[in-house]
Amino acid sequence: MDRRQRKTREAIFAAFIDLLSEKNFAQITVGEIIERADIGRATFYSHFETKDFLLKELCEELFCHIFDEMTEEKNNHNHIFTCDAPDSVFLHLLEHLKRNDNNVLKLLSSRNNELFLQYFKQNLRKLVESRLAMFESERSAKLPESFWVNHIVSTFAETVRWWIDNDMSESPETIAEYFFLAVLFETIIL
Amino acid sequence: MDRRQRKTREAIFAAFIDLLSEKNFAQITVGEIIERADIGRATFYSHFETKDFLLKELCEELFCHIFDEMTEEKNNHNHIFTCDAPDSVFLHLLEHLKRNDNNVLKLLSSRNNELFLQYFKQNLRKLVESRLAMFESERSAKLPESFWVNHIVSTFAETVRWWIDNDMSESPETIAEYFFLAVLFETIIL
DNA sequence: AATATAACCGAACAGGTTGTTCAGTATATA
DNA sequence: TATATACTGAACAACCTGTTCGGTTATATT
Fold this sequence. Notes:
Chain A is mostly helical.
């Protein structure tokens, strides 16, 4: 890829992320982005069809990156994912996010637009669906798969969001423990 | 309140809901609203500061209505909420939503804007917080309250959303059962 | 180094949206 | 009937969007 293209693209992303830390997606205008990225208006539109596509591509670059790395690790250390209990997948994800803490995860915060969480869930869903084959016979008769997947994905995602909202100050292990306890208490009160 | 005001307000709400069933909140313009409501532009702005305030007031009218009714019922049939297990609160909420199915709950669907879900959660949180005093001693030492409340609210809200996405075809009892099973399986896989 | 290619600039543009203003008209209330 | 209040309709500036185009600059190729 042309160095100019790459630099422009990065400048746009940087300006966009910068603005996202200050205001909502809806409140950000293309004018602000190109001013901060210091590029021409036409240039922006030659890179991204609209503001929405910019967001979409940013999320893809962000989350696909994270989840792809996880898939890679799975292939390298197969035992972690296939033999251990599924909660280690969650713990693994948390550690991954902690490692990749590039000030961009803040976008998942509840203070920001819901769109990030949606994209995040989208990717998480893929991961979960591919790993929930076990216990299928027990589950399938009583519980629709889509409900089950939605439940898992939502609880995971909301936990991650809570963590980020609290500045990721707890360790991944602590969060995993919180999650376990919350589910446990849930069974008690039901 | 002046009959004119009331009628205008209702016309705006009706047009707005109508449009929301067709497109996203972001895509709806004030121009479309006033055309469909058949009122003047200035009139709209004398009622609502912006489009966002319109959404806010609609949600308040909608959800406060639902949750206030629940609080009333609680006062009338005190036993349901204070003696029974907390899951009956959830079941109660589901039955309530089913009864109040005025084609407006569709707004909670994932196809629509996330803002509704946010407002819904906001109200749900109040309800949950006021009912989660039990088991406090066991919980508080190990699990932060905000995590616990967030977990409960999110799982409830996402369950309701799944239900609505599936056209509310299952009975409230079935959904409550799904919820119970999902949490149960969750403890198994952890 | 010379040339062709592709990206960028920047200024301008039409079309659409927002939120405000104001003089005039209709409706409620006393 | 008289007064207050809500609505009308049209116009308005300010802003945002997405496109166009001739000219400029960087990159890749030879």
